[in-house]
Every structure is written in C-alpha cells, then in structure tokens.
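Treating backbone geometry as a discrete language has practical consequences that deserve illustration. The sequence in question and its structure tokens are set out directly beneath this paragraph.
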Amino acid sequence: MSRVVIIGGDAAGMSAAAVASRGARPVELVVFERGEYTSFAACGLPYFVGGQVTDAQALVARSPEKHRANGIDVRTGHEVMAIDTAARRVTVRSHAAAREFTEPFDHLVIATGAAPIRPPFPNVEAKGIHVIHTIPNAVAIDAMIRDRRPRRAVVVGAGYIGIEVVEALVQRGLEVTVVEKLATPMATLDPDMGERVAAAMRAMGVELKLGIGVEGFEVDGDGWVRGVVTSGGDVPAELVVLGLGVRPNVALARDAGIALGPTGAIATDARMATAVDGVWAAGDCAESFHRVSERPTWIALGTHANKQGRVVGSNVSGTHARFPGVIGTAVTRVGTTEIGLTGLNERAARAAGFDVVAESIEALTRAHYYPDAAKIAVKLVAERGSGRLLGAQIVGGPESAKRIDALAVAVWNAMTADAFAQLDLGYAPPLSPVWDPTLIAARLAASKAR
C-alpha cells in the first residue's frame, strides 16, 4: 500500500485526500496541517467580519474529525519543516509536543497554499494591523471591532481582498479609507472598468487615495496603530487591514530543490506532477496553464485548488487524471456593485501577443420598464480578424456578475464574438432585456474585429 503524505489541510490538500481515499487502489493517507482547521472557506472570511456570517465555525466545510472518520490521518498543529526527496521523508514539528520527527512517503502532495503579503513597513507589527487569511485572522478583526470600537479604518490595497474587506468594514459602521498604489482599484480589470469600481466605492462613502504608496505606520504609546504614513501624507486609523494580496507559499519546495516556474509558483505538468518523481503540487502554491495565453499562470482561487486537488488524489490512487487549465474567471462585489471577469484583459492580451480589439457597452440588467433595473457595463476583448473572444469584464448592479459565466464558457471554448452574439439566451422582463447586455457587446465586438 502506498503511503501518501499531504502538506496542507485546506482546499487542495483535503480534496486530494478525499479523492485518494476512494481511489482505484488503497492508499495510506497522512495530512499535516499547521493550523487547527481543515477545509475552511477562506473566501467567506470578509463576510464573517461584515456580519453576514455570524458563526466562524460555519466556514468549516469539513472538520479534522470528519476527515478522520473517513480514514484520513489528519494531524493538526503539525508543521512540515523540511522535505528530503532523496530519502523520501519529511521533517515535521508538533507544536503541542514541541518536538520534531520524520515521516516517510511514497507520494508527497505539496498543498501549502499562499501567504498574505506583509511588506516590512516600519511598525507593521503594531497592534491593530491585521491581515485576513485564516479564521483566527477574521476572529481577531471582529473581536477588535467589538472590544475597541474603532471609528476609522484604513484598508491597504484595492484588489479582491481589499474591496471585500471595505464592504465588511462599512457594514460594521466604520469610516473607511483605501490606500492603493495603482490609479484604479482591481488590477485584474482594465482601468476604464476599474474606474467604475472606484465610483461605486466612493458612492458608499469610502475615501480613496489612489496612486499613493504606504511608507509605514504611526503608533501610540501603547503600541496601537494610530495612522498610516503614505507618500501622499498621513491617514488617521485605529484599525488597518492589509489587503495586498498573497504570494505562493513555496519555501519548502524551493529548499528541497523542487523546481519553480516563471510565476514563482511550483511548476507542474497537466497531472499536477512536479519534476521530482512522486511529488505533486496543487492549489495556491502551484502554477496553472492559461488556456488563452497558453502560458504558465498563477491564480489563487479556491475553485482551482479544489479541482487540482481532485486531480492529484486520482493520480496517487490509481486513476489517470489531468487538469485542463484556467482562464481566471472570478466574481466579487463591493456594496451593491458586482464585478465579474474571465480570460485576459486588454493589457494581458497584448502581452500574450494578440492583436486586440475591445468593445464596451452600458445597458440594464432587466427590461427598461421593469422596476429596479440596474446599470451594467460589459467589456469584451477579442482578437482582430478571427473575432475569437479572449476575455470579458462586467461591472454593474445586482444580478450583473454571474452573467460572466456564459462568457467564461465562450472564452474556455475559444468561441468567436459573432458566435456568442447568436446564442439562445433566456429572456424575461424581470431577468433581462430582450437583448442581453452580453449579446449586445458581442455583436459590436464582432463588428469591430472584422
């Protein structure tokens, strides 16, 4: 029986373990997780801070006890310190017992995820400065709001994490300022669509300081943060959340001589195998293949992590499986404004070598005469000549963002804008106009691409 050791007990690691436990051939499964939780919904953390989720335990999809009941040896509070690929073993530290030991493996699955970016700003370790990456992080922010009742908060960074935290803090009644070094929020959007997100945030009462870098933090005599020092002046703050994104957690792999790819994440093939026989990687620590650019990419999303983990679980337990790649589809919201994107934006499409055309339209989410129709902006990026859809972005009111799913299917399957414009999409006045905004944008993009 093969012995499979998995490093990391969240989405990728536990998906691999769950699939392997039901695989074609029996395997012995050992999972080392340095924290106390397994299979938790990191994407739900801002909504716990915002109060929509009232119990942090509700974010746990499957506890260590449930995994153990399924025959998986899950050891929480155990951190893998080193990997020896020649001796086929890992060195593990039990934090509770304060001791180290080695554990052998036939297959090793690296699912170490990503780590929040926390630059070495002066006073960055001050009390009241938080990241939001784990359940304890979110619980700490919630506790601080309850106990200290801060009035002014600063969110550093306006990517996915940043804007979701902004919404949460506004809902908790705080005055929120965002400091972002780029000119518009959400670098994954083109600037014209990012401007729409900025307008939505300002409409919520959020102060935006864009094009400004953080230089450090001011601290009071008790060690609590009282302000953010920026290139544009000081910003008062009693609570700071660093929403600067994450980077792949690859130190173990790198130190073990396991190859990293051009993105800085662990290089794998379509089976999620690394260059070392019997060593696999999945989730936010691993690279993916982008189906549009046809280049390695790194996108930290739970959807990809779960799928990659399932592929690894099949491969280590006797069933051949491959991961087909990604196109970067994502949705989020800030207040009542929804955001969706898939494929490549204009900048990324040009960098990938495409001759690009882009078309943007503004329409309504429902028939114009039906109550509560919201504005929606759709932007499509296509290849000049062929008309192939390369990417899409949506920013709009309620019922906007999930329209990106139809466009994601089109981008995934290399459809043309003209073909998409002919699709038989559903229509009813409470749900869409006769011509869905995505169809209008596709028709105009097809004309421009010819």
